[in-house]
Amino acid sequence: MEHPALGNALEETRSRFYPHNVVIESFMATGIVGGIAFCAFLLGALGGATSVARMAENRWVALLFVQQLISALLAGALYLSGTMWCLAAALVAIAARQHRAAVRSPAPSRIAESPLGLGPA
User: Fold this and answer.
1) Alpha helices in 76-110 (DSSP H)
2) What Å distances lie between residue 81 and 19, 20, 25, 70, 74, CA to CA?
3) Cβ within 8 Å of residue 79, ≥6 positions away
4) Could you tell me the CA-to-CA distances from 115 to 11, 39, 111 in Å, in that order?
5) What DSSP state is assigned to residue 113?
6) Alpha carbon distances (Å) from 14 to 11, 17, 78
7) Cα–Cα distance between 92 and 48 in angstroms, integer?
8) What gap in Å lies between CA 42 and CA 25, rounded to an integer?
9) What is the DSSP letter of 17?
10) Cβ atoms 5, 32 nearer than 8 A
11) What are phi and psi of 105, to 5 degrees?
């Protein structure tokens, strides 16, 4: 509470309390600025996980990320959640590849074809 904007430390200085929750820890260590940025990162990663989960071939990455995130929320630490960070990076890479592939492939035309295939009806 002494440094709300930029945070103070990974643990509470008076009682040496450690939160064991990555969201609370991000607010304690980096203040409101870093805590909001970390929450935005988590929401973006969860959004990427939902879009990647729609693909059958990479669904396991999204499910592993969600499992690691739940673990980090219940008993985790920012600096000990290496698997969560790696899976988040993998999700970003897969989602970027998906987006790039969607931009490159044109959407199918919605113009009705004539029965003979000679163009628009």
Assistant:
1) 82-104
2) 14, 11, 12, 11, 12
3) 10
4) 72, 54, 13
5) B
6) 9, 8, 21
7) 7
8) 14
9) -
10) yes
11) -90, 120
The answer, yes or no, to whether residue 14 has pLDDT greater than 80, is no
pLDDT of residue 44: 87
Supply the pTM of this predicted model: 0.70
Domain residue ranges in the chain: 44-104
Question: Is pLDDT at 23 greater than 90 in this prediction?
Answer: no
Higher-confidence position of 105 and 45: 45
For residue 16, what are its two tokens?
Answer: 């040496």
117 pLDDT band (50/70/90 cuts)?
Answer: low
The pLDDT-based confidence of 3 (bands split at 50, 70, 90) is low
Q: What's the token pair of residue 58?
A: 């990479």
